[in-house]
Design goal:
This protein is an alpha+beta fold and about 425 residues long. About 50% of the residues lie in helices and about 20% in strands. It is built from 15 helices and 16 strands. A hairpin with a 3-residue loop joins strand 15 (about 365-370) and strand 16 (about 370-375).
Length: about 425
């Protein structure tokens, strides 16, 4: 308690230096957190992608066939099945279309508009935790029976029907009648593997390429949910072994497959994946930026701390003369600086969240027909992990900026303090 009273007294009598320190810390935390949050939006775990950290994706294939050339693209259903079906350690697997397609949707006699539609199977709803407002997912029997069923998001249901409880009603999707079997809450487009405005059953179809490619290429993506605690590298090794077996067969039949380290986790997909080459490795520049964002303000704050302590030389000398130990003075100065850092950190976090909510469209340029510019949801910005990360950054900033000047101040002898005052 005596430390807090002393710290309050010193902050009260050095208002300018205190507020300069708090403002400098706030700006440092603001810059670090904006960079951190923009970087982590591709991997944050929020509904319906609450299992994001476990999900693995099989996305494309590279193949060269003698006398036919080379090609890279999405998987055919047959090839996806050969590479990813029934892998050891995988709890669930889902087959979906690689991308969402734009389709016109309407009701009879109503005005049509374009929305993104994703093809998914019944397992998709077991991997992602969508919130159903009305109805339920289509079942495996629905897919096997090739029933034209569709699941709408809340915004689409409201725009078409003016309400949310619309299960059993009919809509036209590209002039083909579909029956609405469920309505789910809207998801954020930044959750790329699950996002769409409507969902229809996935049916394996031909790729649209020439027949020689149909065995390999298509529009299929495989979503894998490993069991808890399963090492994803073991799953990746099994997929690699399947590639090898296909390659041995290919040597006889005149084709060559290239393994691209699939299936990919969310960290890899957030950096961008493209057919025809391996995903980019994590950019070391990111960590250089983090380091600079911490070190530069830490150096400035260290100078401010030294300036504050120069005005307290006599006080420190008196404390030393009355028997205060070096460690007690060091602890007092560190606690004082830590409190300033915490205040600055909280201010920086508030500024960061306001900035991200208000100006995130500067970072994300795409939009939807219904929502305009895309902004991250609040639960994508604020998580306990982000908060604890910011708190750790505050502590690091405090230690870097305050330790050396505090350590030097604690070692001032009473005689030196009096001499400097004179």
């Amino acid at each position: 308690m005596k430390y807090l009273k002393q710290i309050y007294y010193e902050m009260l009598h050095q208002k300018m230096m205190t507020w300069v320190s708090i403002t400098g810390t706030a700006l440092a935390i603001f810059l670090v957190m904006v960079f951190y949050l923009v970087d982590r939006l591709g991997t944050v775990e929020v509904a319906p992608e609450s299992n994001r950290g476990r999900i693995l994706l099989g996305t494309f294939i590279d193949i060269a066939i003698e006398e036919s050339g080379e090609a890279s693209g999405g998987l055919s259903h047959r090839m996806a099945n050969q590479l990813y079906h029934n892998l050891k350690g995988v709890e669930r697997e889902s087959y979906t279309s690689w991308n969402s397609d734009k389709k016109d949707i309407s009701i009879k006699g109503g005005e049509s508009f374009s929305i993104s539609v994703k093809m998914v199977d019944n397992e998709f709803w077991n991997i992602y935790d969508f919130s159903f407002i009305d109805g339920k997912p289509f079942s495996k029997n629905d897919i096997d029976s090739r029933l034209n069923k569709i699941i709408l998001t809340r915004s689409v249901a409201r725009k078409i029907f003016g309400e949310e409880k619309v299960s059993g009603r009919e809509i036209l999707l590209g002039m083909i009648p579909f029956t609405v079997c469920g309505v789910v809450k809207d998801t954020n487009p930044l959750l790329a593997t699950s996002y769409a405005l409507a969902y229809i059953p996935y049916y394996p179809e031909k790729s649209g390429y020439s027949e020689i490619w149909d065995e390999w290429l298509g529009h299929t993506q495989v979503i894998l949910l490993p069991k808890h605690g399963m090492d994803e590298n073991l799953i990746r090794q099994e997929v690699k072994d399947r590639y090898k077996r296909l390659q041995i067969k290919g040597e006889k039949e005149g084709y060559t497959l290239t393994y691209r380290h699939q299936p990919y986790n969310i960290e890899t997909t957030s950096r961008g994946i493209y057919s025809g080459r391996d995903p980019e490795k994590e950019d070391p520049k990111k960590w250089m930026i983090y380091t600079l964002l911490i070190l530069v303000p830490a150096i400035n704050l260290s100078s401010m701390t030294r300036s504050r302590l120069r005005h307290r030389v006599s006080e420190i000398g008196v404390l030393r003369a009355f028997g205060a130990s070096k460690s007690s003075i060091l602890i007092q100065v560190l606690i004082e600086n830590f409190i300033i850092t915490i205040f600055g950190g909280i201010l920086g976090l508030v500024l960061c969240f306001i900035f991200m909510v208000s100006f995130s469209h500067l970072f994300f340029s795409f939009g939807t027909n219904l929502d305009g510019y895309i902004t991250p949801d609040l639960n994508m910005i604020f998580t306990w992990r982000a908060f604890l990360t910011a708190l750790v950054l505050c502590c690091i900033l405090n230690l870097i900026s305050a330790f050396i000047p505090s350590w030097k101040a604690s070692r001032i002898s009473p005689a030196d303090a009096i001499r400097k005052v004179k």
